[in-house]
Amino acid sequence: MSKVVKRILITGNEACAEGAIRAGCRFYAGYPITPQNELIGYMSKRMREAGGTFIQAESELAAINMVFGAAAAGERAMTSSSGPGISLKQEGISYLSGCELPAVVVNVMRGGPGLGNIAPSQSDYFQATRGGGHGDYRTIVLAPASVEEFATFAFDAFDLADKYRIVTLVLTDGALGQMMEPVPGSLFSDMKPAKRQSKKGWILDGCRGRKARSIKSLFLKDGELEELNKKLQRKYEEISKKEVRCEVLYEKDSEIFLIAYGIVARIVKSCVEKMRKNGLKVGVIRPITLWPFPNDIISKAVSKAKSMLVVEMSEGQMVEDVRLAVGDKCKVRFYGRSGGNIPTEDEITKILIDSRRGK
Amino acid sequence: MKKVFSRSKLLKDVPTHYCPGCGHGIVHRLIAEVIEELGIREKTIGIAPVGCAVIAYDYWDFDVCEAAHGRTPAVATGIKRVLPDRIVFTYQGDGDLAAIGTSEILHTANRGENISVVFVNNGVYGMTGGQMAPTTLINQRTATTYSGRNPKLDGYPLNITDLLKYLNGAYYLERCSVHSPKEVLKTKQAIKKVLQNQIEGRGFSLVEVLSMCPTYWNMSTQQAVDWIGANVVKQYPLGIIKNGDQA
Predict the structure, then answer these.
(1) B118 class by beta-carbon count within 10 Å (0-12 exposed, 13-18 middle, 19+ buried)
(2) Residue A62 is nearest to which of B45, B65, B104, comparing CB atoms?
(3) Does residue A1 lie in a domain region?
(4) Are B74 and A61 within 8 A, CB to CB?
(5) Cβ contacts of A74 on chain B, cutoff 8 Å
(6) Per-residue model confidence as pLDDT tens digits over A312-343
(7) Do the Cβ atoms of A301 and A248 come closer than 8 Å?
(8) Subunit contact B104:A58, Cβ cutoff 8 A
(9) pLDDT by residue (tens digit) across A124-146?
(10) Which CATH number fits domain B24-246: 3.40.50.150, 3.30.460.10, 3.40.50.970, 3.30.70.20?
């Protein structure tokens, strides 16, 4: 008798790794750093079982550049790290972007700046959504709010990366990375990769039956680099039109919207449910793609709402994007905790009640 | 009339940006000739460095990939692991390999990656204006050592290929030079050897090539080749440094 698995209890980091494997990722290079160690640990076993390459690299720099090589050779490739390591990877992310190579990078955020601490944080938002490294480029940024989403977004990230030949970041935090949560028993077996686009037209695999080619981001001739930059901008524009993801709760009647992403969105949601029971008309906007940012969705919500409260595990980073989207159409308040602290329901509720009283 | 020499078909018929007397042109040619002779053009992927040889892909007629400064062996590792039946080699200068990429070359060798490395050592940073390299000789004047390299302040010449011989993963290491026709021929044989090792699956193989930079050595072409024969080879002796065939 076959046993039906109803639920799997798994950490976010491991679920992410399995999602990537299911997406056909067959190259992983990483370097240990807390709080993403369950991911590299899981990959070290599972990737080799799946017939792919796992390398524990000598540094974050080496890891991202191994991913660069694997991507240039046409493989679905990924690396993962946390804040300090992601800073080191920015060199490679910039080169991947200049060369238009697809890759997936996972950042399980911890407190910063510097060595900071190893507790959950959302303080790498600026770095993730502004490119991060040198040059005029963007990366798609997916922000999961549950272990299940961490797995499915890792899965989706590979299709997005390949479709646009872009680096796709999965941005989460130490809480989601390390906590265990039940996911549907069929979550992973249901993950069926879509038909992949052929990479034959651009990869480097030896010039058999075709002209020799190169993969490069160096453009010295007059006008060449600006031409590349314009091409990248057109691509980013298309992504901004087609790939925005956002969740909105109580869109129709909310007077106040709480805006949060990732794990904070869950705290905010439970806050809102309680307040709704007390008759307060509050809603939630949860950006899922942090780039492209859901400007239009937020801007539309403003037409009806009186104010917005952005809650983050940082000293205020996404709030800048919200203010850009909203302009002077409504008041945007901010509440943040940093250094590994997580905003509580009580804290958020108090801020909301105070703001209604005009404080 | 019998034709005894012609340009390799794998060397594009374009002018290079290299200075007169520079050794890169010779090393590029040797690589093109060897790949042609081994018949591996259609399965070869080269990795160009950051430095004077950064646009090597404009000169070779086979697949070539860019790499960030010093990360060349990491990029090669990624490609080779994905395509183990292809021939992957890196072309690196002394800044790329022995300074910013020290970690990558050491660990790639230590993992015994089945790749080939052509390491061109001319003792200066040519692309950026002739600054001191890790391999610059003691007392040698460069753009950042105006009164000569002073080991007490600037450190000592880094003999990285000898350092690599202690790694179990390094299979074959040889140092050659292109300062005379005889040494050029030896260099060609060494390049062939490090590629042949990869074809046979023997593991990490590197050839270091001492090369001239008359421009930033402030020398004529003749003085530059004489300088290698008289001085550079004393710090970096020529010959096989490690041969896994005889281990």
Answers:
(1) buried
(2) B104
(3) no
(4) yes
(5) 82
(6) 999 999 999 999 999 989 999 999 999 999 99
(7) yes
(8) yes
(9) 999 999 999 999 999 999 999 99
(10) 3.40.50.970
